[in-house]
Structures are given as C-alpha cells and as structure tokens.
Amino acid sequence: MKTLGIIVEYNPLHNGHVHHWKESLRITGAQRTVAVMSGPFLQRGEPAITDKWSRTEMALAMGVDLVLELPVAYAVQPAEWFARGAVTLLCATGIVDALCFGSESGDIAPLHTLARVLAAEPAELKAGIAQRLSKGASYPAAYAGAAAALAAEGSDGAALAALMQQPNNTLGLHYLIALERLGSTIKPLRWPARDRDTMRRWRLRTESSPAPRPSAVCCWTAGRRPGRRTYLRRPWRFCSASGKKNVPRCIGKRSASRC
User: Fold this and answer.
1) How far apart are CA 128 and CA 122, in angstroms?
2) Taking Cα atoms as reference points, which of 169, 34, 146 lies closest to residue 88?
C-alpha cells in the first residue's frame, strides 16, 4: 500500500485543493495520504484565516489520513527552510513513498539537475548570496539570484535560470534539494501544468452578491479586493449547530453527524 505525502497550508481548503489531492493520488497510485500543514501562521508570516484545528478537520474530512503540523520555526521561513522542515517531517514518518507538488515547469528533470548542484552548497552559491545580501536584497531574492547565476554557467543554464523566476518551481526545487540532502527514498512527482490550469478554473467562483448564502464560505483572498467577494461552493458550510460563527465545517459523511 503506497502512501502519498503532500505539503499544504489550506487557508482555507477549497475545491482546487480537493482536485490537487485527488490528482496526486491518481498520479502516484497511493491509497493513503500524509499531509504536512502550517499551523497558526503561514509562510508569508500572516496568520491563517482560521485555526489549525479547523483546517485539520477540513483535511481529514476530505480524505487525508494523517495531518502533521509544520512547526512555526519552519512555517514562516523562506522556501529553503520551509521545504527542509516539511520534507524532514515526511521522511521521519518512514511510510511516505511519494511527494507530489505543483510546478510551472513541464518537466521535473531540469529541477532535479539544479537540485543536485545546489544541495552541495558550492562556494560560488554562498558568495553569490552574500554579495546580493550586501546590496540590500532579501534572502529569498539573494538565493534565487545566486542560484540562477550558478545555473546559467551550465550547458542548459538559460533554461534553468528561467525556472528560478517562477514561485512554484522555486518551492518545488527546494523540496528536491531537501530530499537530496536527507538522502531520502521518497519519490518526487510533479503535478502536470494542465491540471494546475484546471485547478485555477475550479478554485474560486466570483459573484457580486453583497453577502454569502448559508452554503458558501468567503475566500480570504477575495476579502482583500474592494467590491468583490468570492465564495466556495460545496462541500463546506457554516456550522450553526456548533455555536461558533464563521467556522467552516464539512458536510460530508465523516462530519455530518457533528453538525
């Protein structure tokens, strides 16, 4: 029986996440899922829209078998340490066979090539990071710039450097680097680009209604856009029986009795 590992934030869980999970199971052929999820704070340093217990409940109701909290010391870090903490947790379980992540790249091989070089932390990489930091760049920007410059020295340098300019490629690259450094046997797999496009189409549905209906959950991202609200259709609703306001609960089989 194969086990899938995924690294998520679910802020909150929406239909795009459900699609990603189902497609990851299909791609890997796994029957079980272990998810590493951020706690109260996300990678950008902002607090999650709802608490970690509610988000865990959503993941379990969706079908995930085990949710592990990514400690805040890793959860709010740049991609390098975010990935290192999450991948280390998956490796520590001893049961995860595959890690599936999204990527703008059409092929995971170039990312593998670059990961093998960066995992060794060559002196040129460290010098490039230090030089960019001294000029006022943030650490993520300094790392990306130094890695791109190092990649540009190879035969496929231009293509590899271009990969570093895309956020999902960058995070996926650091998952691969972490796997290399840990000597893990977990097999990394990329979620195909066409399915990422499908996720973007399914993810949100925007309406001009001034208030959500009982079966809708307002999306945090849309809440930042004046005059627009975005709602998530089934399977979520506000649980009135719990006595808590604005707490999304699943209406699926696993939690219907609780509501």
Assistant:
1) 10
2) 34
Q: How many residues does the chain have?
A: 259
Instruction: Record the pTM.
Output: 0.70
Nearest residue to 43 via CA among 157, 142, 174, 147: 174
Specify burial of residue 55 (Cβ count, 10 A radius: 0-12, 13-18, 19+): buried
CA of 170: how far to CAs of 96, 108, 147, 219, in Å?
Answer: 22, 12, 10, 25
Q: What is the pLDDT of residue 85?
A: 97
CA separation for the pair 193, 212 (Å, rounded): 32
CA distances in angstroms from 256 to 4, 15, 126, 220, listed in the order given: 26, 18, 53, 25
Token pair of 130 as six digits = 């230090």
Q: Kindly report the backbone phi and psi dihedral angles of residue 102, in degrees, each rounded to the nearest multiple of 5, phi listed first.
A: -80, 150
What's the pLDDT tens digit per position in 244-256? 444 444 333 333 3
Q: Which of 5, 1, 170 has its CA nearest to residue 91?
A: 5
Q: Are 119 and 181 in contact (CB under 8 A)?
A: yes
Question: Are residues 97 and 28 in contact, defined by beta-carbon separation less than 8 angstroms?
Answer: yes
Which amino acid makes up residue 224? R
Give residue-wise pLDDT tens across range 67-84. Answer: 999 999 999 998 889 999
